[in-house]
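Researcher: Please generate the 3D structure of the following complex. Treat every line as part of one assembly.
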Amino acid sequence: MTGKRLGFISALILAGMCILPLGLGIYPQHVLIVSLFYVMMASSWNLLAGYTGQVSFGHAAMAGIGAYTSGILAVKAGIDPWIGVCAGTAIAALLGLGLGALCLKMGGIYLSLTTLAFSQILHIVIVNEYDVTRGTMGLQVPGLMAEYSKITYYYIMLAAAVLTLAILYRMIHSNLGLNFRAVQNDEVAAKSIGVKVLQVRVLAFTVASAMAGFAGGLYGHYLLLITPEIPSLDLQFNVLAMTVIGGMGSFIGPVIGAFALNILAEKIRDYGEYHVLVFGLVALVVARFAPNGLLGIWRRFRTRPHARSSNRLQD
Amino acid sequence: MKLNRRIVTGAVALLLLCSSAWAQGVIKVGIVGPRTGAAAATGQAFDEGIKLATEYVNSKGGVLGKKLEVVFEDTAAVDKAASGFERLVTRDMVVMVLGESQSSSALAEIEVANRLKIPFVVAEAWADDITAKNYPYVFRAGPSNSGVVSQSIAKWVQFEKFKKVFIIAENTDWGIGIGKLTENAMAKAGVQFESMITERNSQDHYVELTKIKAYKPDAILAYIYGVGLHYFVAQAGETGVSPKAVILDGAGPPSLWPDYWKNVGDYGNLECFASSMHEKVELTDLAKYFRESYVKTFGKAPTDYKSRSIFDAILIAADAINRAKSTDPTKLIDALEKTNLKTTRGMAKFGMEKGSPRYHQWDPPMLVIQWQKKQQVVLYPPEAATGKLMR
Amino acid sequence: MFAISLMNGLVMGVIYALAALGVSLVVGIMNVVNFAHGELYILAGYFSYLFASALGVNFVLAMVIAVGLVFFLGLLIEYLLIRPTYGNDMYSLILTFILSIVLQNAYLLIFGPYPNKPPLWVQGATDVFGLFLYGNQRLAALAAGAALIAVIFVIIKKTWFGRIIRAASQDREMAELNGVNTTRLNMLSFGLGCALAAAAGVILAPVFPVTPTAGVPVALTAFVVVVLGGMGSLWGCVVGGLTLGLVENFGAAFISSGYKNVFGFMILILVLLVRPSGLFGRAKI
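Model: Done. Output below.
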């Protein structure tokens, strides 16, 4: 794809996204806002898991850091939510830097388990320090603007998602992005050609955490209620499933995954209490038989329309 | 452009779908409550109550000559409660929302009810703040923390002449709220007490029970909802804390769930619980009707009283719609405020004093019941008592 | 307070060790972390409840059947989900993570939200050294857990099968060169790992009834224990399990019961900081 054509298509999609909510009721608007939150979460998690091979289970926790920082500042100190969101982003970035540095010496599974432990500790602290966080009851926080308006929230979330995606795109399509790939594919080889493996990994961790913190902060002030469900394994599951289903390690995959799964989740909600089960089964089947996600399936059909080979993973 | 057109087509289809829900001949009422997660048992109880109530209302001619239809939205996750409520109102076009059993979810939902100006009758979420905020669109036809403590639990503690009690509460809006209120009531009544907050999903209470045992209380007021209560009761028996100290389950339903006896074994004997329903004590003929149709429909006796709470809430809603002769929210509120309806738990009537949690609040009577050889014996209030406390 | 915390710590420690042994076995041989470990523990609890309480099978037989069924399910999971991911540890982690969510919700659909409890093996409580009353079922669980761990040790250290397992977890390629069919070994060890989770499940289910989501903390504690003891180290599991059980219970007794589970995670991060390969682990990975 040439740069010009890509720019044209993105502009078209952006214009479409701008007019999309105008004809919709407030419930579809809500679904779109939540989808945009997940676009930010899944895309930034993809930077970690898809581009540098660090499967972090603490990404939802970082969104929780952003949301709770901003929420507590607003409720306890009366600080403007916008300043709070910035503070939340900064703290998530700092913690991401710390956690990233902590996990440096560890590879693969150890990193996953450490981030899992981090997210559980955060969860327990939030649940127990109910004097400050109101625990599982949820902290009611002020909105981003004085008068509640769905459509304004939509445009704020859209702008935030576009900003996040633009930064990610620039990072991935720079020398840095090449380094990310190199680190993921072969750490030793990357080191030998002069890639500063440690810095690259920590940088990815910091940037991704900051983005999750930013997304979480905005999301909290949209929901008006911040609960331990934000820094939870369930939300982490959603982010992971969206990325995997959309296509891990591709720029656009998580975006597709976030929209597809979030809208699918809304659809199957009509079948009562089993929506999570259906959601999980779909994720399992796609993850198992189409490891490159929906994007991979689409590409396969584009490039080899007649080949009907199975999508099995290769050994 | 192809993609955009598809999105627009999809959106139009979605809109059509929404408007077709506004079918002729039906008036919809929304129910919120947990259908998944730790409190999903409440969702099942609600389901049963909904079935019986819609059959009852529709057999009596429905609402405004139309059939009453119920849409039940899962609000188990506190963070999804507000959007679930919004979905009921804006997508399913319900004229009123009822239910909820988790205080934390209810506190998020009342904000939406007020913003969207839709009447909301809370059934089983007890936190005082729900009505204390005095939102014009929010009512509660069910227990409130302060009501349960002052009307039932504190009075029962005095009635049994307990000298020392131990309060153990889970870390939720309900638990912490009712724990604090109980502390105040005990201090006021001159009863010695000690209290502790516990994690509601904890499986192991041995350490906490050791602390309780050292305090030697006459009674343990346990505000733990769900399976956590079963663990607590069984382990209290194992460690010899009870029956020396009588345990009161301050919520009720967990002591009545089908698996209670399986989980606690013989240690479940002599446990006490609060409940608005008793297998033999029936306050109105409607309560009798409820029991009979429940047995006929489900082939078992009702246990979880929350099935009856939602039944009452639906009756109150149907009555208000019929008296308002309209589904206009302000007219509905007006009608709700004038409610004076016979329900299974007595005459429902909402309080009108502003500035207190009694505003738009109806506290149905609660009983304190003890399990004695798997029989439910009412201990309090004295006028309904069927036996004496055993220990 | 000290005595009962010690006792509780021991009981929980043995169960933690048992659950962690399964994780450790699978990690050691296959380099796969089974995120659905806790859900298999729960499934065994459901099975033993189903056979013993609902169908009236003798409780010991019910437990054996439950463990057997979970073993076969483990083989099936390995064949369907894990086998295609060899060489990509992260992908198997992701797959089993999704599987755990699927299973949790399937349990909710099948068994409902209520807790299910298989019958107790023994009733009542015993006065331990005149210090405190302790549930007999917990004492029985302690004994059964300890005995089972001993049996596993004998199998691993003394039998032909154990030698293959040890060989494969030390050097996979070498074992393969010596004629070990590693595909079959993988399948078998994954099944065994699941069976160990199941064994822990059937032992503890009469004490702590199973609910659809009760497997999550079980799996998390097992992971903590495995990292604490070092991936793939059996002794590490036992020491790690006991350490965690004791720390949690003393922490709950003397610091804060709400933070009970935090202590384990704190230790996990500290250990990884100081000794990334765990207390007894190999430096590899």
